[in-house]
Known about the structure:
Elements: H1 8-13, H2 17-22, H3 27-41, E1 48-52, H4 58-65, E2 69-74, H5 77-90, E3 95-98, E4 110-115, H6 125-138, E5 139-150, E6 161-164, E7 172-181, E8 186-195, E9 200-209, H7 213-222, E10 225-231, H8 240-244, E11 262-269
Parallel strand pairs: 1-2, 1-4, 2-3, 4-5
Antiparallel strand pairs: 5-11, 6-7, 7-8, 8-9, 10-11
Helix pairs in contact: 3-4
Amino acid sequence: MTDTSVPDWQQTFSQMLYWKWEGEPRDSSVRADIGFIERELELPPGARVLDLGCGLGWYAMELARRGYAVTALDWSTPYLDEARRRADEAGVDLHFVHGDMTKLEYTGAFDLVLLWGNTFGMLSDEDNRASLRGISRALTEDGRAFIWTQNYLALPSRLNKSWDFPEDMPDWLYLSEDTRDVANGRFGFTITAIHLPTGERIRLPFSWRLYLTPELRHIVADAGLELLGIYGDDPKKIDWKTYQRGDPYPYATTAFTDECAVRTLLCGKREG
Length: 272
């Protein structure tokens, strides 16, 4: 059953079914993304890092393995329980926090705040802005934030529908349908997970508020942050063999164009 009294993203991330459809990032992909961040920021040993919306802990654990002091925050109790289990099993030391990224209470506590994957934009406009203000407060004076967001202009023109049977869940069928709310600038999808033996249907809706780049500049500045760079990539110039073995991903500010599917924002605290 679906509880329509709670936001879509809470319905989706209150249980583990979503990741059975989405799939988890490969270890090499995680290493490549963290390698890019290390390359750009030259983080000192032991730098304090806050991973917001940490999910199952992939990026937080890789950062901790590399010697950083990591705090990993997420709203979803099931996700945090699984992330803690994995970290304990791997012998990785980091601090997990159950919390709301729109109500961050940290002040000058972190050298890096990471908001990676599809996390930014999934909330309402007001809550997205509150998250950015919390990030600004949480950073040290010289701290940096990396915020990963999709590019509105690179969205596919057609809305797709598909179905899938997860390999390790033969009793489940996943139906997927893209959604688009042009009036409110939101794009996403609705997954319907169907338990075939019983006919139970679980709806997993998800969408992002996808901002145009000028909008991003405005809300970032309004939150007390300075936009230092927008990174993109040129798929035609990527050596996929090196990326797939975990070398740093080749995001670059010079590679950002309207055709890039992803924009990676580098932000610092605004002066004054």
